[in-house]
Design goal:
By secondary structure, the chain is an alpha/beta fold. Helices cover about 35% and strands about 15% of the residues. Helix 2 links the parallel strand 1 and strand 2. The chain binds glutamine. The site of glutamine has 13 residues, from loops.
Length: about 425
């Protein structure tokens, strides 16, 4: 690296210490999705994002704990145990990229890569006072990301600043022949399109900002930020998004369906854990999966299998797809009149361990503001927006239309 720096041939990420979530493959290194079922498994190839970081001379220092198979909002669903929030160790760091957010907040590395299916980058960023971004679906290759819900999953950076976030995005983005859903849309130099003097037309979603159950201090902080943006010359107007109550159900019907299919490959034969009690093919499947998967992953496989089953397919899966289209259309409609959408990132600040873990519905509702973006496929970022009287950070979310990451990062940077 010193040699390259001397010769001025060093890449954009020279010397940057990067951690990767434990669902991103790095050839010759372990990857387990924080699950017992992948115990001891080593990646046979590197994810495209890893190749692109290495090509720019980043230093990949290690892998980071997460909720098992990226399913969770608190990092309490990991075979390795909980990740603590470095700002208050009684509290969760968020999930599922809890380790990725905590590692940045605790200065264990400069930047990390997480994955976001329903908020797994943005919610932990909000809980740890860091910057977390989910790119447009297709902006970043998913090759080498172990799939949870393939039509939602995206890899994205967690960083201390928006500048760093933009730089990592420009390095990892772009078409990849290994991922047919990756987009050929040109990759701008995101890091050079920040701090513009542009004035934006911004919508804030009334149903989110005034949602029932939102922490009053979170609401206050977001409204104060909205006032500030107005004073800086942006147009900020309340807009109605009437489908708020359908977001979480749609997300959990569709993602569990995709997960039940994706996770069928973990069968005790191809990868990782195989039950010692297995006697034949069927008991190898059954026992290995029963021993290898944790409770939440099993819950989702069963829920997903149910919504896809012959008798219920139309009532749940097809219906979910139709509602996804409505949510997409309504979201697109807002972008006809506005450049950007703003909401709180989460209804509250980081919660204490155990608070939601006995009640899955309560836990799922933590995702209420973050699931809209991946349901619609649009990009979204969470940036810090003040401190709660409990001492924990509050996050604000900015969403943009497809491939409008530049605008989104520009506004996020100014916030
Ligand atoms: N918390 C959400 C869930 O449990 C989001 C997870 C994610 O984005 N991977 O599914």
């Amino acid at each position: 690296m010193d040699e390259k720096l001397k010769n001025k041939t060093a890449g954009k990420m020279a010397g940057v210490i990067v951690g990767i979530k434990d669902n991103i493959c790095y050839k010759g290194h372990k990857v387990s999705c924080s699950s017992k079922i992948l115990e001891g498994f080593e990646s046979l190839y590197s994810a495209t994002v890893v190749e692109r970081l290495l090509a720019e001379d980043a230093i990949i220092i290690g892998r980071l704990n997460c909720d098992e198979f990226a399913m969770g909002s608190s990092n309490e669903n990991s075979a390795y145990g909980n990740v603590l929030n470095p700002l208050n160790e009684k509290c969760v760091p968020g999930g599922s990229s809890g380790g990725a957010a905590a590692a940045v907040a605790a200065d264990l590395c400069h930047v990390t890569l997480g994955s976001d299916t329903g908020g797994s980058i943005r919610q932990p960023a909000s809980f740890t006072g860091t910057v977390g971004m989910k790119p447009t679906y297709g902006r970043v290759s998913r090759y080498g990301l172990i799939a949870y819900a393939s039509s939602f999953d995206q890899i994205g950076p967690i960083t201390k600043t928006v500048e760093d976030n933009a730089l990592v995005l420009e390095v990892i983005s772009g078409l990849d022949k290994h991922d047919n859903t990756s987009s050929s849309t040109k990759v701008p130099e995101y890091s050079k399109e920040l701090n513009t003097p542009k004035k934006y037309k911004i919508a804030f979603l009334k149903e989110c900002v005034y949602a029932e159950g939102i922490d009053p201090e979170v609401q206050k902080a977001v409204l104060a930020k909205i006032e500030k943006l107005k004073n800086e010359g942006h147009t900020v107007e309340p807009v109605s998004f009437p489908f708020l109550e359908y977001l979480v159900p749609t997300y959990y019907v569709l993602t569990t369906a995709e997960a039940s299919s994706n996770l069928s490959r973990f069968d005790g034969i191809h990868y990782g854990h195989r039950s010692k009690d297995a006697k034949d093919l069927e008991s190898t499947y059954k026992k290995s999966r029963a021993e290898g998967f944790g409770k939440e992953v099993k819950r989702r496989i069963m829920l997903g299998t149910f919504v896809l089953s012959a008798g219920y397919y139309d009532a749940y899966y097809s219906k979910g797809q139709k509602v996804r289209r409505l949510i997409h259309n309504k979201t697109k409609e807002i972008f006809k009149d506005y450049d950007l959408i703003v909401t709180p990132s989460t209804p509250g600040t980081a919660f204490e361990f155990g608070k939601n873990s006995q009640d899955p519905i309560k836990m799922y509702l933590e995702d209420i503001f973050t699931v809209q973006a991946p349901i619609a496929g649009i990009p979204a970022i969470s940036v810090p927006c003040g401190k709660h009287s409990n001492g924990l950070p509050i996050g604000i979310q900015v969403m943009a239309d497809y491939f409008e990451e530049s605008k989104m990062l520009d506004l996020a940077g100014r916030i």
